[in-house]
Amino acid sequence: MTDREQTSFADLGKVLVIIPTYNESENIEPIVARLRAAVPDVDVLIADDNSPDGTGDIADTLAEHDPHVQVMHRAGKEGLGAAYIAGFRWGIDRGYDVLVEMDADGSHQPEQLPRLLEAVRDADLVLGSRWVPGGGAVNWPGHRKLISRGGSTYSRLMLGVDIHDVTGGFRAFRRDTLLGIGLDEVASQGYCFQVDLAWRAIRKGYRVLEVPITFIERERGNSKMSNTIVAEALWRVTAWGVGRRVGKYADEPTPALAPSKVADRAPDAARVPAAPVATDADTAGTSGATTGATPPRT
Fold first, then answer.
1. What is the CA radius of gyration of the chain?
2. Which residue windows are coiled coil (predicted)?
């Protein structure tokens, strides 16, 4: 299936795409239009952190004209992690089966969402990856690319997870995955939130898959990346890695490895194995690798 071909994802149940916004007035309307054109059956939740530039008002107008669009107005800027958790809870409470993270600024191409939805048919969490074969980043400053690749490499070494792009934010979760990883315990904000959720999913034994995406640097508006966000990710990942090495997570289940079934349908995807509890080795991943068995779904 190419990105331009439309297919039905009715077998997945109800799909919700969550788009956090803060000062995205120039971007929110075109990104929602592209998303609705790419996958017409999905619903959209815009989680706006009381943007002073009027993003919330634009979102309300979109919702007035499209029953597939909903808006969550939040009190203020509380961080990416808090916005997504609020969106997850909103979607879970309303019976959504698959919940997707996507940026508002166009860096995640809505036309590539079908890749994630196709893959989540046989996975519990699908990560859109810039750093697997077929993925990439366009018009991205060198220092941002260095931070992203360096952060993913550091996380792999510290946490023992075989994820090539652990900081990426274009993801599809099954409802049961979000219910099982302990959202109430997640305190991470910024892009460390992405590392946190992926690591929790792997530690719990959920099936995690990476699919290639092309990240495009925003053309309008300002990036939310800051030194504070980078610092939070560094100290949290370091603390988790130290805890892993002293056996802090040894009581969590590490499921037996099972053959991948996704590789036959999605040869450009890479399966992520369950994280070992206490090892200093970081094993490189390949397409069609093995993974942990899936916890029971309700």
1. 18
2. none
CA distance 88 to 173: 10
Distance, in Å, from the CA atom of 88 to the CA atom of 76, rounded to the nearest integer, reads 18
Q: Look at residue 129 and give its three-state secondary structure.
A: strand
Q: How far is CA 240 from CA 103, 112, 166, 256, 277, in A?
A: 26, 32, 14, 23, 11
Structure tokens at 297: 């779904």
- Give the residues across from 270 on adjacent strands: 210
Q: How many C-beta neighbours within 10 Å does residue 135 have?
A: 20
- Picking from 24, 36, 94, the residue whose alpha carbon sits closest to that of residue 65 is 36
Give the span between the Cα atoms of 248 and 244, in whole angstroms. 5
Q: How far apart are CA 254 and CA 82, in angstroms?
A: 28
Q: Is pLDDT of 23 > 70?
A: yes
Task: Write out pLDDT tens, residues 96-147.
Answer: 999 999 999 999 999 999 999 999 999 999 999 999 999 999 987 777 777 7
| Domains detected in the chain | 11-292 (3.90.550.10)
Here the tokens at position 173 are 């979760």
Q: Which residues, other chains included, contact 86 with Cβ-Cβ below 8 Å and sequence gap of 6+?
A: 47, 72, 74
* Listed residue (101, 103, 170) closest to 132, CA to CA: 170
Structure token digits, residue 90: 């909103």
**37: its two tokens:** 């054109």
Q: Name the token pair of 221.
A: 């508006």
pTM of the model: 0.80
Q: Which two tokens stand for residue 186?
A: 């997640």
